[in-house]
Amino acid sequence: MSLVIAIRDKDRIVLGSDKQSSYGVNKQHDATKIWESVDIPGALIGGVGMMRASQIIQYNKIVDLNELSDTGLTTEFIINSVVPGIVSQLQSHGVFCGQIEEKDVGSSIMIPNTFIFAFEDRAWIISPDLSVSELGDYLAIGSGSDVANGALYATPDKNPFERIVTSIKAAAETTLFVDDEIDFLVTKPYAKDEQALKKAMGVFEQAELTIENSEPEKPKEEAKTKKKSKAKKKK
After folding, report:
1. Count of domains observed in the chain
2. pTM > 0.70: yes or no
3. Domain region containing 50
């Protein structure tokens, strides 16, 4: 399993993920779980579940851009174009998409993954039952998501990179299938992202922190004058 986090940050979406993959008792730390869409410029996708399924969606086109209206990506477009495109690609590459039986409703297709599809300042969650919901302020999906969502709830005052790092580290402490190696992607870069990322990863130089947190020293002569004036008042 995997952990992918999406955070709405003003006019953009920030995605973060761990990098662990596992098979039986073995694990690796180089998995790609968030990526840029190959057919919609500027769109980002994250996936948790079967690695094979995520790789298929990562390297194949899933939509016909001719179906994209002038209004851009909408929930309707995700439901009617992106979801069928995901199912079609998975099935054409041999990934089994099962059936779920619901009483008095009938059966529906199930996919082995949950995906997050992000574009500009909006993101949508595509669940295994193919239902679609739009992102609120944040969401973690996959292994350790309960712990990660709790950490996200508790850190609204931190920058999005700090929140993702805190959440993934918290999940890694309690979940076998999550590590604390982290990837980030943003739908829109900010000039201060590098600084915010350094802060999140704890790699600021000590000198920078010292300058930022210290007050300028007063001139020595001024300090001596004040001491003398205080002494006179006491007399």
Report:
1. 1
2. yes
3. 3-207
